[in-house]
Amino acid sequence: PTAQILGLCMVFTAISNSLGIQLMLPLNMDRAFSAILSVCAGFGVLGVWLLCPLWKEDGAAVAVVATEALVAIMMAGYLRHRKVI
Fold first, then answer.
1. What is the chain's percent helix, strand, coil content, to nearest 5?
2. Neighbour tally for 6: CB within 10 Å
3. How many angstroms separate the CA atoms of 76 and 18, rounded?
4. For 1-26, how does the pLDDT look when each residue is reduced to its tens digit (9 = 90+)?
5. Which end of the chain is less congested by CB atoms within 10 angstroms, N or C?
6. Both ends of the chain: CA-CA distance in Å?
7. DSSP label of 27
């Protein structure tokens, strides 16, 4: 089950890498890129801290997938706000 949960991470990682590395960095949105990653890193640590005691490795996997999804959503939202996409 853990590997199946982490399988979702590939989709969100592809989206966030495309938006962040391929769009945000070349358009000099470095500060926003770093801010999004910093906020999401905190969310990820909190998620692992809360979910691991409950669901062990599956909780960590859910936290990782949720964090990567949040990165993709925040990057898409920022780029949409800036009218890039």
1. 90, 0, 10
2. 17
3. 10
4. 999 999 999 999 999 999 999 999 99
5. N
6. 35
7. T
